[in-house]
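User: Hey, quick favor. My workstation is busy. Could you predict this chain's structure for me?
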Amino acid sequence: ILMLSFAIAFAPSLKFTKVSTAGFVWDSAFVHLFSPDRPLNERILMGSLDSSMYNQAHIDPLVKIIRENTKDTDIIFSNIPYAGGMLSAFSGRATSSGMLPEVNSPVNFDPLSAAKLSIWFKNTDGSFSETLKNYVKEYNLIPVAETELAYVYRNNAAAGKIRIPPPFVPVPVLLLILSVAAAVIVMDLMRHNNVSG
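Assistant: No problem, here it is.
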C-alpha cells in the first residue's frame, strides 16, 4: 500500500525522446501544482501533461489570426498536433495535423500542401527551426504573422478544403431504427404496467 501510494502521489516516470532518455522521480500533477510553471512554448513542445497548454493571452491572438486569414472551409496545419487540435477547435477550422498518431486519415495526403495556414510553434531556445526554413522554401509559404508563441504562414497554393463524407447509414434509416426502438420500449413498458395492474 505504501508503494502504491508513493506511485500515485509522485508518479515516477521515464521520458523517451529521439535524442535521450530521462527519468523523473517526482512527476505527478500533484507535485507540479507546487512548482513554478515552465514557459508555455516549452510545455507545448516538451509535451508536459501536468498543466494546460491553454493560455488565453497566447492562444487567443493565434485564433484571431486564423479566423481573419481563412474561410470556414479552409484547413490549418500545426507542427504540434495537440496544439493544432486546440487551435482548430477554438477557430472552427479543420486541421490536417491529426492530434492522435494512431488515428490516421483513410486517404494519404500531404498535410502541409492541404493547409491554407501553417502555425509553427517556436523552439524553446528561441532559434528559428531548420525544418520550417526548408518548408518555407519548398511550399512557397508567405509570412502572415508572428506572435510570442508561433509563426504563422500562408500557402496560396493550398488545395485542401473541408469535405464531410456522407454518413455510412443514411439519416432516414437511423430515424426509422430509433422510432422502432422507441416503439418497442413503450410497448414493453405498457405490457409491464398491464401485468402488474
